[in-house]
Amino acid sequence: MHLSRKIHLTAALSVIAASLSFASPIAAAAAPAPTPSHVTAQLPNTYDIQVGDVRVTALSDGSVPQDLHQLLHRTTNAHTDELIALNLQTNPVEASLNAFLLRLPGRLVLVDTGSGQFFGPGNGGKLLDALARVGVQPDQVSDVLITHAHDDHSGGLVKDGKRVFLNATVHVGKADVDFFFDNANQARTGYDKSYFEIAQATLKPYLDAGKVKTFTGKQEILPGVTGEIHTGHTPGSAFYTLESRGERLIFVGDIVHVAAVQFPDPTVTITYDLDEDGAVRVRAQTFAALAQSRDLIAVPHLPFPGLGHVRTRQGGGYDWVPVTYTDRAGQ
Ligand SMILES: [Zn+2]
Predict the structure, then answer these.
(1) In sequence order, what DSSP letters do the residues of 288-320 get, joined into one string?
(2) Is residue 208 exposed (0-12), middle (13-18) or buried (19+ Cβ within 10 Å)?
């Protein structure tokens, strides 16, 4: 995903407009009742689950508004509005920015890093606070698994242009590095220039330090963690599968951005997809497989903690079934 400043501004203006109409009784009387703003700053969130022997912590980097009328492709605004209305939502909708921490034997592993400084003050960039809440300092992170080199996944790798995770090796699909480090691909594809600038800005400090390991196809990345490339959203988009004691969690990256729309209608794409046909193909194949396997998945932009299952929907398409909130002492 990528967030333009324009969308921020539009959202900010609509919040200001809503508060202004509340402040003026004349405007309030003349205009229809404004939709209450639900924009609320929360403390940095964390959520723990156990996968076999491995404790996995979802970490919130924040959330951002998404104007679906501008962002979604292969749909109409009426179709989009109809689907989000079924979830009692209106446009724009909020997208979470989720990252995940894995406590493997002898290793602390992050999957994605949120947006860092790239969405501006107050928007995203809460990952390090969330990590601190669970007692982890950046220099303790041994590995970072990047699902793809978009700003809201690799953005937290750097602060003021310097590496945040000084002792970490960054694992990323080779095709993303090849694609985003060749500016000729920008002219060839017309893909937003900022994608290239930010991918380079976030990965180059680690490349220069000899701290990047790229991979292709399907490979064991760390003991118990397999990476597999699923080209579509970006050329090097990767799934990471954690397996421990017969239990499994799959980090699927950006195969879905808007639950209310893309589960019932997986053919709908988003402007962040480089290859829209490929993105639809990956989403359709993955949803079908997950509805059969019932594997637990971790999703960056579904509502925090972004953990849940995919279920076949009566009448076609799929449903998102979030994990059941659990907070109690162990056995
Ligand atoms: Zn993305």
Answers:
(1) HHHHHH--EEE-SSSSTT-EEEEEEPTTSSEEE
(2) exposed
Alpha-carbon dihedral sign for residues 231, 150, 48, 96: negative
- How many A from CA of 300 to the centre of ligand 1? 9
DSSP conformational letter for 138: G
Alpha carbon of 329 to ligand 1 centroid (Å): 36
Report how far ligand 1's centroid is from the alpha carbon of 79 (Å): 23
Ligand 1 center–CA 148 separation, angstroms:
7
Q: How far is the CA of 150 from the centre of ligand 1 (A)?
A: 5
Half-sphere exposure of 57 (CA within 13 A, CB side): 20
Q: Which two tokens stand for residue 14?
A: 């609509």
pLDDT bin (cut points 50, 70, 90) of residue 34 is low
Q: Amino acid identity of 80?
A: T
pLDDT digits (tens, 9 = 90+) for 210-249: 999 999 999 999 999 999 999 999 999 999 999 999 999 9
C-beta neighbour count of 188 within 10 angstroms: 9
* 92 upstream amide cis, omega within 30 of 0: yes
Hey, what are 249's tokens?
A: 């969690």
Distance 97 CA to ligand 1 centre (A): 11
Q: Mind listing the pLDDT tens digit for each residue in 138-149?
A: 999 999 999 999
Instruction: Using the mean position of ligand 1's atoms as its centre, give its distance from the Cα of residue 67 in Å.
Output: 16
Phi, psi for residue 62 in degrees, rounded to 5: 125, -165
Please, how many CA atoms are within 13 Å of residue 180, restricted to the half-sphere of its CB? 29
- Interval between CA 221 and ligand 1 midpoint (Å): 21
* Residue 238 Cα to ligand 1 middle (Å): 11
Q: How far is the CA of 99 from the centre of ligand 1 (A)?
A: 13
